[in-house]
From TrEMBL:
Domain of life per record: Bacteria
UniProt cross-references to InterPro entries, sorted A to Z: Bdr, FAD/NAD-bd_sf, Ferredoxin-NADP_redctase_2
Record lineage: Bacteria, Pseudomonadati, Bacteroidota, Flavobacteriia, Flavobacteriales
Name used for this protein in its record: Pyridine nucleotide-disulfide oxidoreductase
Keyword entries, A-Z: Flavoprotein, Oxidoreductase
Gene Ontology molecular function: any one: oxidoreductase activity
Keyword field contains Glycoprotein: no
UniProt cross-references to SUPFAM superfamilies, sorted A to Z: FAD/NAD(P)-binding domain
Species this protein is from: Psychroflexus salis
Length: 319
């Protein structure tokens, strides 16, 4: 019987594994994809908004060329934390089902094997389920909820939906690789959380007309060769179009949490129930860590401020 099984080896799952090891617990982390799978799937040229020391686990130095690390540097860092500490992490193994045998005894079924554990940490993040647009044409192959690389969109007519960090980075990068970019934005301006050193760039590109943007606007249908959207006056407009990047955010897997018997406050942004001191949920022996703690408020918890969850949980398990 394991002392603790960790679902997900993102930065916070790795922090939990390291803390469990330091406390001599019998633990394993199970990850459905590659190590730090969400980060691996982030845009190729992304730069973190945090400085590297803020992303450190257990004060293990994170050295980056500039103050804000790149995706490649972060992959390198978290891999070195996992390998240098010989953490028990099983990759490409997905947790399919959790059966409660009793308080502090859970059976975990993956696509490869079955485990028994006294405690379970759910650090499954939020990057697997995109917020849908719920409009006709969304399932066309030209539509993606993930942005990887600008070259693909070169010399193409691209619509970017949204005005958050991801949308702005995608709009600027693709414009600079020769895409004809139009942003469709539901709000009245570029998001206020957009990185302070990027925001003036996008605002000026829009002002000078290099990137077109429609604010207070909503995409309402996607066709093979065009899109239609409602502009700020409620008028339906049509744009010729090759590709759509719908970067409208992501959400945690709430049905997985519900299957575990974890209470979710649907009136309050789907925030799951947990004790802020111990991170234990209403299910004895099941703990939450990382971005998943914020429910639909996926900006509330990020790497910087949720690394601390690892220490809280392992302390609670030990006591
Ligand atoms: C473009 C971008 C830039 C960002 N920049 C910053 C920044 O500068 N600073 C910062 O602090 N935060 C930043 N964030 C947020 C940060 O990346 C997330 O908050 C962070 O990844 C949360 O870590 P996590 O371990 O909780 O979740 P994740 O990193 O999402 O890890 C969860 C893991 O669980 C795995 N998993 C899910 N379901 C299962 C299952 N059933 N079985 C097994 N494994 C499963 C997933 O594959 C994934 O690897 C950024 C996010 C984005 C999208």
């Amino acid at each position: 019987m394991l002392d603790v099984l960790i679902i997900g080896a993102g930065p916070i799952g790795i922090a939990c594994a390291l803390e469990a090891k330091k406390n001599n617990l019998n633990y394993i982390a199970v990850e459905k994809g590659a190590l730090v799978n969400s980060l691996y799937n982030y845009p190729s040229n992304m730069t973190f908004f945090s400085t590297s020391e803020k992303l450190e686990i257990d004060e293990i130095p994170f050295i980056s060329n500039n103050s804000k690390p790149t995706k490649q540097e972060a992959l390198e860092y978290y891999r070195r934390v996992a390998t240098s500490n010989q953490l028990n992490i099983n990759l490409f193994e997905e947790v399919i089902e959790v059966v409660k045998k009793s308080d502090y005894h859970y059976q975990i079924v993956t696509n490869k094997q079955t485990y028994n554990t006294k405690n379970l940490i759910v650090s499954t993040g939020f990057y697997d389920i995109p917020n849908p647009l719920n409009i006709p044409g969304e399932d066309l192959p030209k539509v993606s909820h993930y942005y990887r690389d600008p070259h693909y969109y070169s010399m193409q007519k691209l619509v970017v939906v949204g005005a958050s960090n991801s949308s702005v980075d995608a709009a600027l990068e693709t414009y600079r690789k020769g895409a004809d970019v139009t942003m469709i934005v539901r709000g009245e301006q570029i998001g206020e959380r957009v990185k302070y050193w990027v925001r003036p760039d996008i605002i000026n590109r829009i002002k000078e007309g290099s990137i077109k943007a429609y604010f207070n606007a909503e995409l309402n249908q996607i066709f093979e060769d065009k899109v239609t959207f409602k502009d700020e006056n409620g008028k339906i407009q049509t744009l010729e179009n090759d590709f759509v990047l719908a970067l409208t955010g992501y959400q945690p897997n709430f049905s997985f949490l519900e299957k575990l018997g974890i209470e979710i406050n649907k009136q309050q942004k789907y925030i799951p129930t947990y004790n802020e001191e111990t991170m234990e949920t209403n299910q004895k022996g099941i703990y939450l860590a990382g971005v998943i703690c914020g429910g639909l408020e996926t900006h509330k918890w990020f790497i910087e401020n949720s690394i601390i969850h690892a220490e809280k949980i392992i302390k609670a398990i030990k006591s």
